[in-house]
Amino acid sequence: xxxxxxxxxxxxxxxxxxxxxxxxxxxxxxxxxxxGDAGVPVANMxxxxxxxxxxxxxxxxxxxxxxxxxxxxxxxxxxxxxxxxELVAAGVKVxxxxxxxxxxxxxxxxKWYGMKHACPELVAEAVYGLPEVNREAIKKARVIANPxxxxxxxxxxxxxxxxxxxxxxxxxxxxxxxxxxxxGRKAETHILFSESxxxxxxxxxxxxxxxxxxxxxxSRFANAPVxxxxxxxxxxxxxxxxxxxxxxxxxxxxxxxxFEERFAGEAFVDVxxxxxxxxxxxxxxxxxxxxxxHRPQGGDVVVVLSVIDNLVKGAAGQAVQNMNILFGLDETxxxxxxxxxx
Amino acid sequence: xxxxxxxxxxxxxxxxxxxxxxxxxxxxxxxxxxxGDAGVPVANMxxxxxxxxxxxxxxxxxxxxxxxxxxxxxxxxxxxxxxxxELVAAGVKVxxxxxxxxxxxxxxxxKWYGMKHACPELVAEAVYGLPEVNREAIKKARVIANPxxxxxxxxxxxxxxxxxxxxxxxxxxxxxxxxxxxxGRKAETHILFSESxxxxxxxxxxxxxxxxxxxxxxSRFANAPVxxxxxxxxxxxxxxxxxxxxxxxxxxxxxxxxFEERFAGEAFVDVxxxxxxxxxxxxxxxxxxxxxxHRPQGGDVVVVLSVIDNLVKGAAGQAVQNMNILFGLDETxxxxxxxxxx
Amino acid sequence: xxxxxxxxxxxxxxxxxxxxxxxxxxxxxxxxxxxGDAGVPVANMxxxxxxxxxxxxxxxxxxxxxxxxxxxxxxxxxxxxxxxxELVAAGVKVxxxxxxxxxxxxxxxxKWYGMKHACPELVAEAVYGLPEVNREAIKKARVIANPxxxxxxxxxxxxxxxxxxxxxxxxxxxxxxxxxxxxGRKAETHILFSESxxxxxxxxxxxxxxxxxxxxxxSRFANAPVxxxxxxxxxxxxxxxxxxxxxxxxxxxxxxxxFEERFAGEAFVDVxxxxxxxxxxxxxxxxxxxxxxHRPQGGDVVVVLSVIDNLVKGAAGQAVQNMNILFGLDETxxxxxxxxxx
Amino acid sequence: xxxxxxxxxxxxxxxxxxxxxxxxxxxxxxxxxxxGDAGVPVANMxxxxxxxxxxxxxxxxxxxxxxxxxxxxxxxxxxxxxxxxELVAAGVKVxxxxxxxxxxxxxxxxKWYGMKHACPELVAEAVYGLPEVNREAIKKARVIANPxxxxxxxxxxxxxxxxxxxxxxxxxxxxxxxxxxxxGRKAETHILFSESxxxxxxxxxxxxxxxxxxxxxxSRFANAPVxxxxxxxxxxxxxxxxxxxxxxxxxxxxxxxxFEERFAGEAFVDVxxxxxxxxxxxxxxxxxxxxxxHRPQGGDVVVVLSVIDNLVKGAAGQAVQNMNILFGLDETxxxxxxxxxx
Lengths: 342, 342, 342, 342
Fold this sequence. Notes:
Four copies of one chain form a homotetramer.
Chain A: E1 2-7, H1 12-21, E2 27-33, H2 42-45, E3 57-58, E4 70-73, H3 80-89, E5 93-96, H4 106-113, H5 120-125, E6 127-128, H6 131-139, E7 143-145, H7 149-163, E8 172-178, H8 193-196, E9 201-202, H9 210-222, E10 228-234, E11 241-248, H10 255-262, E12 269-271, E13 289-294, E14 301-308, H11 312-326
Parallel strand pairs in A: 1-2, 1-4, 2-3, 4-5, 5-7, 6-7, 8-10, 12-13
Antiparallel strand pairs in A: 8-11, 9-10, 11-14, 13-14
Helix pairs in contact in A: 1-11, 6-11, 7-9
């Protein structure tokens, strides 16, 4: 059994990790930390976990994380970078669900995240945890930077096109829509039910933190710089991301075949039949990305539709997938949930 | 492996059965029938089942249901009563998720369901599949009448009070609220998104088909007739039932202890701590009934709050629970889903 | 033109008042106060008011409220009681949308609201602003206590039955469901979209502040004490209250006629045809209470269904109705909005 | 008073027209037709109209539409083209809220709408009712083709850019999101609450009927052909369209000033301050288009955010605006509703 610690278990990413880990056949949950709620039974805060998670939150200081095999950080940005080095030194694998280790360019990271990076040396060795791209590197990683939710949906959708040089790189558009849980479990007015329900709104058009992360990923696929416009929106649902991607075709290929071949054998990417419109609910609660590729009216524009559950393939599920790879388990262990419909 | 057939797999109860059965360790899905969609891959209609259910819908006539160990009917009312006798004669267990075998009084059934009953003799032997009440009888049943969604939430909530003679029986009130999936997957105007969202409404105040079912159950618990007012409401959520139950106390007992003792050892009934307000989302996607009991202001009225997922403990999950009991499996086999939160 | 001031314009009750007052033909908006947002244009906080409300929020101290004809308090409980006396002394009418003047029994008020009352003498003279009951008194009031949202729906629904002595008074049940806007525009976790959507939950079963207010009202209708169980619930919609009321009939009368006669001539109470199930959306955005009365199965229980928009007839609309009465205007002035459907 | 007839009053566009017309100071509602519901009081089908609309639906045959000053068609596509000529000949103005007169190229129309056009001659004279573009022509029209919902939001958003030659025309992208009421009040499975709620999905990527309408409009603005990719999506809200528009800048201008100048004096287009993200709820229930223009990261891509209420500025409200222009009324008459928030 893999001994697992979770730092920061009171947000949506944290409770989703607990849902998945509590059902994982090879995992023993050792500790869940929370600065503010130490001593509180986890199931008091999240009654959905009653009878399934018996632990109490513990103070980060007193949690014996050093005895874990792996520690997940489900914390705000800026926490993992302060604690990872010590754990790594103790031989503990670190999977960070926040952004601390995602951007290789430290200056770029500091610009977007508005703080000084505490641990640039680990950024250098950290592996970006997108298994469909970096599976081999993940196996040997000591620190895994779990991708952001938007970046997962957008990168997987563009991946075959960019790798194969099928589209112009200077003018990509990613129009992405997220359920409200993507904004986290913070007491903020704009994500109140009465504000978010029966409403639709863009945000961060001037620049969103996931832009440099996506741009970095696409540039690596292309081995070249890319020009990307990324517009995120808030849509009145709890879970789900739908990325609608636009690119201009420069090389005439069978797009459907390109996608099917690129993702053949991937357990968690499902290329839909030609003409499909994947729905976010077709992946709700499951670690799955469903993708459809279109060429409207036979023109020179390709439209890719890519959907994930932001809390699963976009966060906790992908983190567990990375853990499975890291420890040589079946990559699908503990991730067999069938999407909830309706 | 238990060989399972499902009659009527295109409604919400049907697809939920498939979700649960496809994850069940002891089940082999043999056939899923649909009159209108024969030949269609199940996963085409329900993309959530892609890669998990490979079957196509088959015509009821050509499905070899006689070779199954058990057949679930996830059909409209009035279908199972026409086909069950033949299956039972062939040694196949029948679990009906509709209402055909729920009401012992045939005349009463015919009045509420507006048709002649085709198989009164099986009604006589059918076991009402509420495991917390009828577990022993379920083990030996040939036909199980799976309870309705409202009746499950209401009966479990009243059960300890009525069995123990704690409340007056002449004036019970069950005010129940259901998510829209309870109305089924039928193309009807009143359950359109634009009609049901941002709206709340009672229905069937003059009389709902679940009234006689609940009244029959409570009368059996009490060994006496009961007077019940039952008002169902439609609430703008997909899944979940919340029953708020009111009774007048005639015997002063420790209500919390009464509930905890009655349901001690039950895997799928969770008595919440004193003062709790269970939420429907705390059971969403899981086979669980959470119950809290209150005595407001120390008066003589008891208020019980009882929540289930209408498609799981209120339908498909309870059906699988009944199957597990029927075949001597662990009662929780295949029912380990942790509620989805958020 | 009536010169109007609004104290506390940043909550949902406040912005709804502004929506109604900005369309009112006889009103001149003079000042809108906000302690925290002084100087901010109202339309910056609420873009829905762009081009319609040109004022900025002003600090309560510097607002010249004494020159208004009437001041609405759309503040948290405990504010109006500190400022009303001075305004009244200056000849300004006060309409408090909070609870400060609703409960005549000061000790009872202090128990439920957890603070010492700052102005008991004004409580004594304040008129409870339920026009269908107190219209004559409202005309001459100096201070109007605008009823709570639940109390409006529940009192109007029980009114004909209690006044006419039709039901037993010792065991009334009010099972009420509210949209989330009833909880206000506060940054609190439990009313986040991701917490409230696709969820249904009771709260305050042990005792809610609207209980004493409703009990006081019903007791006055009856000239006798009443026994009431009141259970509020949160339902995943923005606006609307649905109260389902239960009483035991002791006098056999034509219930439909009783309701129609009691509310004949009322502009803002609509008794629906026999057998109706009023929906909250049938009153959304409008100052209207729709009521249906049922006697299920011809038994001895009466069920009343009463719906309002909690922010209109349950708050701002009723406040404007009270203002109209107070100043001798047509009671419907500025309240002609047709409910928004769908 | 203008005598008004409405053909097809049972859909969402129809009931919204009734809401607006019943509040219009210069309108007398003469007849509302419905083939299937003749004889039924309008307020029975739509309780929101109780006490406000006293008419019954009448059979189209027996309605004396020839005596009206103007007739609105709120019918499915293909109806108005059969009845308009006779009305026009009788001197009745026709405003068609469906698509029959929107596309000048008859062959194109017939391709997209899958039927033979019954009245090409009226197409030739019909005026496309986008007042911000065609106000003068509308004044003298006999037949007005009221724009589609998506086309209204998309054309108004692109208008200043295309007219002024600011962007490349060969590769425009319109990523549009609609509330579910845009799909109409039809009993279809995919718009059931349980299908549409907590879900997000694109549709019609291969080609949507609003594509040729938008392309025609943009081409007229530009006096040149345009290349447009249009992807509509269904978002789980009742009302609202959010269009996110992408274009490549070829001429460096002050975008904010360009938009403010183009729409100066327009009552129903509101250019938001720089950096804004208009929300659909900021226009809900009102005849308003709010627009923000962005140039992310100072690059060469312009992003326009354009929101409307699909049933108001996208349908019934714009139709009333056209009627006002047509009859020389104040363009804002009857359209003073303030958006509903929250």
